[in-house]
Structures are given as C-alpha cells and as structure tokens.
Design goal:
- This protein has helices at residues 24-30, 56-76, 99-108, 110-113, 129-139, 143-150, 166-171, 186-198, 232-254, 264-277, 294-304, 306-312, 315-328, 330-342, 345-356, and strands at 4-13, 37-39, 45-49, 80-82, 119-125, 155-156, 159-160, 212-214, 220-227, 282-284, 291-293.
- It is an alpha+beta fold.
- The radius of gyration is 19 Å and the shape is globular.
- One of its GO terms (molecular function) is ATP binding.
- Pfam families: GCS2.
Length: 365
Amino acid sequence: MRSVGVEEEFLLVDPESGAPQAVAETVLAQAEDAHGLEKELQQEQLEVATRPTTTMDELSAEIRARRGAASEQARAAGVAIAALATSPLPVDPSLSAGRRYRRVANEFGLTAQEQLTCGCHVHVGVDSDEEGVAVLDRIRPWLATLTALSANSPFWQGHESGYSSYRSLVWGRWPSAGPVETFGSPERYHAQVTAMLATDTLLDEGMLYFDARLSHRYPTVEVRVADVCLDVADAVLVAALARALVETEARAWRAGEPPSPATVGVLRLASWRAAKSGVQGQLVHPLTWKPKPAEAVCEVLVEHVREALADTGDLAMVQQAMGDLLERGGGAGTQREILAGTGDLRSVVAHAAARTLAPEGDVKG
C-alpha cells in the first residue's frame, strides 16, 4: 500500500476580528517541538505536515493531531488557525524573514507581495523516478477535478471573487505554475527541470510549481492543485483520491497504456473551469473534454480509480465523503452559505476557525 502524507497551509487570524495576523515567527519561536510546523512565504500563514501513513484512518488522525498542535501554538500567540485558502477579509501581507524570501520579493514584485494563499499538497510514495514520471504523464487529465473538490477560496480582499477557488488564479501568476506536457522518461523530466533553472527565472527547484511534480525532498509524487480544505474529511478525501490516481496510473503504465494526448491548452481550460465552478457548476469532462455537471465528473473520477480504492479499502469511505461534500458544496459553498446567513465576512472566518478543529466521525478506510 502506497504511503501518503499531506502538507496543509493555514491562515493565522485574530479570534475577534478575523483579520490575518503576521505572527508566524512568534508562533514558531515559542514552540518547544516545532516538528511538522513550518513558516511560509507570508507571516500570516503557517504550514503543517503530517507523517507518511498507509491508511486513511491514520491520515485522518495525523491531520487532526497536526491541526490541533498548530492551533495550540497559535492560541499561545493570541491567534487562531483557519483552514481558508484565501483571506475573506482585506489584508496587506507581510513577507517572512529570510534571504530566500527577500529574493522572491525582489524578483517577483506584486506576485509575491499579494501571494497570501493556502494550499494542500499530497505526497504519494512511488518506487522510482521512472514510475513517478509515468504517473505524472497519466494523471494530468484528472487533477482539475481535485481542484474542484477542494475549492475553498471564494473571497478575496473583502470581495466575492466569482470563483470557488480564487487561490488557483492567484497561484497561477507564478511563472512555473500549472499543467505541463508529458515527459516520457525521467531523463526528459530532469532535462526540463535543468532547462527551466538555466533561464535564471526561478530561484531553485523548490519553485517548480507544476500541478504535480516529483518531490525534490522525498520519493514521492507531489500533487499540488488543492486548496487547503475546510473540513478534515475533505482533506482525507482528496488524499485518498490522489493516492488512488497514482496507483491507477502506475498500473496503466505497467500495462503499456499510453498517457492522454490532452494538450496543455485544454488542461489549462479545465483547471480554470474547476477553479470557477468548484463542485457547484460545470466542469470539463476528463475523457471527452466537454462540459458536464460537476457531480457527473466527480463520479467519473471515482469510477476511474475504483479498483485502486477497493484494493486499499477506501472505496466506501470515498463514496460517502464525496456525497457529503457534493451536498455541502465543498468549502466554497460553506463559506458562501455563512455569508448569506450573516452578511458578515468576519463570521465566515470565525466559522472556519471553529470548523478547522471541529470533531467529526471517524474516517473509515
């Protein structure tokens, strides 16, 4: 069974006003054991990483434990964590200290200054670079659906953005972000990385912001398209689907099945549509490339990875979690519902902060 782990980024917010607070360095400095807690680009956010696990029960417990530890450290600094992929309230972000972050700010200007976004990155174990690149080539059509399922950023700087995952649009400003072409071999993948770094546009390999990539730190495929999820159950769902995709496409590669010929242009349109609609509108079907209701596309994804989900015992959990998410409208739907009921974006943040740590039923699988 393949290992899976997640990295989640959270906003640090004032418990009363809901405004993001630039206190990440304070939070980390006071932590006696900062294992799993890291700073990010802006001081208004914090990253939390789980250990690798092999079951979804373990992953759910890890996510809850890491969120709890981050919340405890944040509370000691007078703030709360909120699983929001963008801030609903206006904010002027504060760049984190460090030479690398200064270089990012100097090189990328407003793209860096305005980049207060929180994602969820899923790491899935692979046996080799050869298997990893084969997987990257074959999962491309399905990644936009993961964006839609995780969409949790409808508001930006105090306004309705018109998107369910506005984080995806803001993230797309980076020069290396988005879908990529097929590589065909590890040699071609690494040659592409070398060529991109040789342009002197990116600071280092860490700035290769492909939708999915080979991790430069771990023996994993890193799927990077998801917003941070409001609910733990949604994060587990995205991770379970990401692992099933990796396993499904590794099996396809071993069986000699070629990757989809989908072009980067079409993949970009599918990604944009996923960011726009979330799970409450039309998505681009990953096999026909025609518009279909989000629920139908999500069902096609589950069917595509059904065998891998069944083999890990995750199928029933994924079906239940998917149904629950579609009924709620995901994180974006929840945020909009809170605003409609209260008329106050501060209430959206307060609800998110509470829900980030809300107890839920056990995730089976």
